[in-house]
TrEMBL record:
Belongs to the TRAFAC class TrmE-Era-EngA-EngB-Septin-like GTPase superfamily. Septin GTPase family. This is Cell division/GTP binding protein. One of its GO terms (biological process) is sporulation. PROSITE patterns: G_SEPTIN (PS51719). Residues 36-308 form the Septin-type G domain. Keywords: Cell cycle, Cell division, GTP-binding, Nucleotide-binding.
């Protein structure tokens, strides 16, 4: 006799006859999350002198990272791309953010920059690998320390001409493993007309070379989320200016730079798109950057590694295979 086909249970929407209290679960979750804090890891990639450190410090209104650039014209360039990480805990209105800033001094500074992206891609993959090892450990910690890179801000030289070949290669490589956010550095070196023309050219070249920039749309995204994402994509690359200096303008304190034409206010959207970038990174997409890293980039890495382990176990001797299956649950 054939087995009866499984049927999905009927779900009825009910309202309790009196107050039960399960609506407090959101407050319970919030209390736990606030107690634990949040982790956000940002990488900055770009040539020396494009204002990477200044932008990071301006974004988070804190002195988080010092410039690693050359301070004298005759100072020797770094022979390779370095990876330097600094960690801070920032608190705002009871919310604690553990922030890792990953800097890449030396990137793109040489005449021959072949392979200058390799240490960066390796670092990103190494963080995935470290997380996977902890995830597969039998006696793993309740909360795994997350060092996976959630966002990579890529600085484009404001040449006014377009992307360099190295920009195309590196952004393609990075987009495979991390959420890439392109910005035009020191955009005040361009006139407003030049800036808009340069932005359009960069956007066209990104599309031509099929470089997929964050944010991505998901099937379960609501209509308003898709509209926000579309607005961000239309803005990319962000034309930004960073400044940690506070200036007095008509009795108001503003962060900006003084030029012979006047004061450039980094928080004035008529002057640059710094506010749009900050809102995007911290106010609308911070959680999605973290989730996308886990659900897309890390999951792709994890699946590939587990498949390789499974194939390795299948080709191993019986005793070794049994040991690997027990350790890695494959």
């Amino acid at each position: 006799m054939a087995a009866a086909a499984a049927t999905s249970p009927v779900i009825n929407n009910l309202n309790p006859g009196q107050y039960v209290g399960f609506d407090s679960i959101t407050r319970q979750i919030e209390t736990k999350l606030l107690k634990r804090g949040f982790q956000f890891n940002v990488m900055v990639v770009g040539q020396t002198g494009l204002g990477k450190s200044t932008l990071v410090n301006t974004l988070f209104a804190s002195q988080l990272i010092d410039s690693k650039g050359r301070f004298q014209p005759d100072e020797q360039s770094r022979s390779t791309t370095e990876i330097q990480t600094v960690s801070h805990v920032i608190q705002e209105n009871g919310v604690r953010l553990r922030l890792n800033i990953v800097d890449t001094p030396g990137f793109g500074d040489l005449v021959n920059n072949d392979g200058c992206w390799e240490p960066i891609v390796k670092y990103i993959k190494d963080q995935h690998s470290a997380y996977l090892r902890k995830e597969l450990t039998a006696m793993r910690d309740k909360y795994i320390v997350d060092t996976r890179v959630h966002a990579c801000v890529y600085f484009i030289n404001p040449s006014g001409h377009g992307l360099r070949p190295i920009d195309v290669i590196v952004m393609k490589k990075l987009a495979e493993v991390v959420n890439v956010i392109p910005v035009i550095a020191k955009s005040d070196s361009l006139t407003l007309t030049e800036r808009e023309s340069f932005k359009a050219r960069i956007a066209s070249e990104l599309a031509y070379h099929q470089i997929k920039m964050y944010p991505f749309d998901a099937e379960d995204d609501e209509r308003d989320e898709r509209e926000i994402n579309e607005g961000v994509r239309e803005t990319l690359p962000f034309a930004i200016i960073g400044s940690q200096k506070t200036l007095n303008v008509n009795g108001n304190q503003v962060r900006g730079r003084k030029t012979r034409w006047g004061v450039i206010d980094v928080e004035n959207e008529d002057h640059c798109e710094f506010v749009k970038l900050r809102n995007f990174l911290t106010r609308t997409h911070l959680q999605d950057l973290i989730e996308t890293t886990a659900q897309i980039h890390y999951e792709a890495f994890r699946s590939k590694q587990l498949l390789a382990l499974k194939n390795q176990a299948n080709n191993a001797k019986p005793q070794e295979a049994a040991s690997m299956q027990k350790i890695y649950n494959i």
